[in-house]
Amino acid sequence: MKKLPRGYKIISPGLLLALIFFFMPWVLTSCGDEPMQEYSGWELAVGTNAKDGYNGNLMVMLSLAAVMLMISFIRRQRLAFGDSYGVLITSVVVLLLMFQQFLTTPAEGINREILYGFWGFLLGWIIILMGGVVNLVDRPSMNDA
User: Which residues 6+ apart lie within 8 Å of 95 measured at CB?
Assistant: First the structure.
């Protein structure tokens, strides 16, 4: 059995962190004078009111799908050609989507406060990105082994 590349040893804790914080409170939000309501990443992804059809946040759902994609890269326990680039591209896309969705100014009349679940999720993806960079840098030495 081949040894797990060094970058994946960095990515693994990042994935675990992102997965745990995905289910913790992400935001407090309200419209106008309504009371603030707390939502986890899961609640944002799947929506809270199924009778009106899907009303979740597709970008948050895609970020969860990206976590599952990263887990599939690690489960193979070998570094395929596209994995390093896949990790980097997926990480950058998820980070950009999260910044755009949650760290921009909300629309007028919307009150929003970012909570620890979102920050932990973001930190997890930054760690995943760093692991992807390490995989890319280590690629020549992995091909020699």
Answer: 122, 125, 126, 129
